[in-house]
Amino acid sequence: MSNLHHLTEKVLRHPFLRFCLVGGVATGIHAVVFLLVIHVGGSQLAGNCLGYGVASIWSYYANCLWTFSAALSWRGFVRFQLANSIVLIWSVVAALIGEMLAFPPLATLALTVVVGPVLNYFGHSRLTFRKHTSA
């Protein structure tokens, strides 16, 4: 058990793996909110947008405080949301495709959560949490 604990601590030191874990939880939050909206009679578009919003706010705080040990700030939050906007756009496109082609809600959700995290990591690695160096 001690070896497992040591391995877990070692693995969780890597920011990429922390980013993936935060993203996994954010994806779960997105999915739960999406499915709750569908359950109460909302559209796939409303579910995806609300799910995105709730997951995005949680993800900013978790990534700042745990993944990258960055200070929370409005400027950082805005940069985070700008990077996330590509995922929001993808969520809207996926929902519109799902509704237009009459996909079951879970197919639309799968389309969103498979492509979204790849776009998300690319945006955050280039904009939000990029290490700035002085010349």
UniProtKB/TrEMBL annotation:
Q: Which domain of life is it from?
A: Bacteria
In its UniProt record, which GO terms are filed under biological process?
Answer: polysaccharide biosynthetic process
Instruction: Name where it's found.
Output: Membrane
Q: Which residues cross the membrane?
A: 16-38, 50-68, 80-97, 103-122
Its name, as the record gives it, is Putative flippase GtrA
Which residue ranges does the record assign to the GtrA/DPMS transmembrane domain?
18-129
Record's keyword terms, sorted: Membrane, Transmembrane, Transmembrane helix
Task: State the similarity comment.
Answer: Belongs to the GtrA family.
Primary site of residence: membrane
| Any Pfam family | GtrA_DPMS_TM
Q: How does it sit in the bilayer?
A: Multi-pass membrane protein
Origin species, per record, is Pseudochelatococcus contaminans
Can the keyword Iron-sulfur be found in this entry's annotation?
A: no
InterPro entries tied to this protein: GtrA_CellWall_Glycosyl, GtrA_DPMS_TM
Question: What's one GO-annotated cellular component?
Answer: plasma membrane
